[in-house]
Amino acid sequence: MSEPLTARPVSFSRVSPAIVASSTNANVLGNVHGGDIMKLADSTAGAVAFRHSDGPAVTAAMDEMTFLRPVHVGDIIRTYAEVNWAGRSSMEIGVRVEAQPFGNATDEPVHVASAYFVFVAIDESGESRPVPGLITETPTEVRRQREAEIRRAHRLARKMEIDRGRDE
């Protein structure tokens, strides 16, 4: 029998990488493709999931992605991600995306997108494996965990309703 996993605080696996948006990321309007922002958010969430679970984890679902403002070529894009909820083998990772004009360090970064990803930790054979529990330490972390539980309940209820309709 394996040893029980030790729960980890949200801060244990939090990351915030940054990139400079280039012309290869641009659409015909000169804005960064939403798909490129989604890929960056997914990669950031993947790093958090790997750190929290001590190993490989795969994207199982993107629960929601909201684009709030355009991102322009030359902007510095920073993603902030952390575990919002951890179950037996899955985790919800919340990602916040901000952008700041490259040449103006005095401009405050602008919140441009948010997303929620569900990751499942996997073993060498690709089967799910247990993940550590989550320790919330701040009122914001407690709120995010509660909201993640609501999103999870909605995902499961939606799946059950769809499956029930297919069985008829």
How is this structure best described in words?
The model has no long low-confidence stretch (mean pLDDT 94). The chain has helices at 34-53, 139-167; strands at residues 8-9, 18-20, 57-67, 76-86, 90-100, 110-121, 134-135. It is α+β, with helices and mostly antiparallel strands and 168 residues long. The protein has one domain (8-167): Roll (Thiol Ester Dehydrase, Chain A), CATH 3.10.129. It contains 2 helices and 7 strands; from the N terminus they run E-E-H-E-E-E-E-E-H.
Task: From the structure above, extract its key features.
168 residues, 2 helices, alpha+beta, 31% strand, Thiol Ester Dehydrase, Chain A
Summarize the main sheet: 5 strands, antiparallel
Helix content: 25-40%
How would you classify the helix and strand content by structural class?
A: alpha+beta
CATH architecture: Roll
- How many E strands? 7
> What value does the Rg take, in angstroms?
18 Å
User: How far from one another are the termini?
Assistant: 42 Å
Strand content: 25-35%
> Helix and strand succession?
EEHEEEEEH
Shape: globular
Q: Into how many domains do the coordinates divide?
A: 1
Can you identify the CATH class?
A: Alpha Beta
CATH topology: Thiol Ester Dehydrase, Chain A
Layout of secondary structure:
Layout: E1 8-9, E2 18-20, H1 34-53, E3 57-67, E4 76-86, E5 90-100, E6 110-121, E7 134-135, H2 139-167
Parallel strand pairs: 1-7
Antiparallel strand pairs: 2-4, 3-6, 4-5, 5-6
Could you write a compact summary of the structure shown?
This protein has 168 residues and is of the alpha+beta class. 29% of the residues lie in helices and 31% in strands. The longest helix has 29 residues, at 139-167.
